[in-house]
Amino acid sequence: MPELIEIKVDGTPVRVPAGASVASAILDSGTVTLRHSVSGEPRGAVCGMGVCFECRVTVNGVPHVRSCMTLCEPGMDIRTK
């Protein structure tokens, strides 16, 4: 059984398996919109390999982090809004 770690997604505590990507953790939390475009369109993970940049979120105060390329760490604060 994989070790579970706790992170926060938009302030809500979420427990995810160690080694999970931030994108998968966000989706597991029930959030499907990762950000909004400059015109207000909802955006989500598209390619899952860091090429499209559609999955950018704010992690620990750092904006524009590609969630599909970033692994969760205990205590991580992830913001999609």
Which SSEs are present, and which pair or pack?
Elements: E1 4-9, E2 12-17, H1 22-28, E3 35-36, E4 42-43, E5 56-59, E6 62-66, E7 77-79
Parallel strand pairs: 1-7
Antiparallel strand pairs: 1-2, 3-4, 5-6, 5-7
Brief digest:
This protein is mainly β. The protein has one helix at residues 22-28; strands at residues 4-9, 12-17, 35-36, 42-43, 56-59, 62-66, 77-79.
Could you please describe the fold and organization of this structure?
There is one protein chain. This protein is mainly β and 81 residues long. The protein is built from one helix and seven strands, in the order ββαβββββ. The protein has one helix spanning 22-28; strands spanning 4-9, 12-17, 35-36, 42-43, 56-59, 62-66, 77-79. β3 and β4 (42-43) form a beta hairpin. The longest helix is centred in the N-terminal third of the chain and has 7 residues, at 22-28. The chain is globular.
**Global shape:** globular
Sketch the major β-sheet: 5 strands, mixed
Strand content: 25-35%
Rg over alpha carbons: 12 Å
Adjacency order of strands in the biggest sheet: 2-1-7-5-6
Q: How many β-strand stretches?
A: 7
Poorly predicted segments? none
Given the helix and strand composition, which structural class is it? mainly beta
Element pattern in H and E = EEHEEEEE
